[in-house]
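Hey, I was hoping to borrow your eyes for a little while. For a while now I've been wondering how a particular protein folds. The fold is given in discrete form, as structure tokens running alongside the sequence. Could you read through the record and tell me how the tokens relate to the sequence? Take your time with it, there's no hurry, and the full record follows here:
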Amino acid sequence: MNLIVYISLFTNIIMVGVSLITHFVTYPSFKLIKSSIFSEFHKSYTNKMLFIVAPVMILELISSLLLVIFDMNDNNTGIVLLITLMLIWFLTFFTIVPIHNKLSVNYNKDLNQKLIKYNGLRTILWIIKLILFVGFCDYLATNFHEC
């Protein structure tokens, strides 16, 4: 398998793991943070998560784009993976980030529930992308043209 395929697969696996931990541990724990310190906690949390997640997400995007560009057989495999990733990015930046922006000002139970719900959808999309990727791995390994 070539390096781009490995990078794309590895970043997808990382994001599934991060998303699962965030969904089942972090976001539900928000309700346990005292309201007097929630805003400070949330800002610290989002800054730290951005430092960890942003490089991985960018690397996942770049490697996914390269899979589309250098697919020798025009099988649309890379396109399916990229479309799934675009849905994840759309959900992240147009739904989840705005909820985080509101929560950074003041904790709200209903917003936190929305955050959990939309992150659940995002987690499912990342898992679907990973399942598709693993299913396409042999194809990608044999049909991906080196850069």
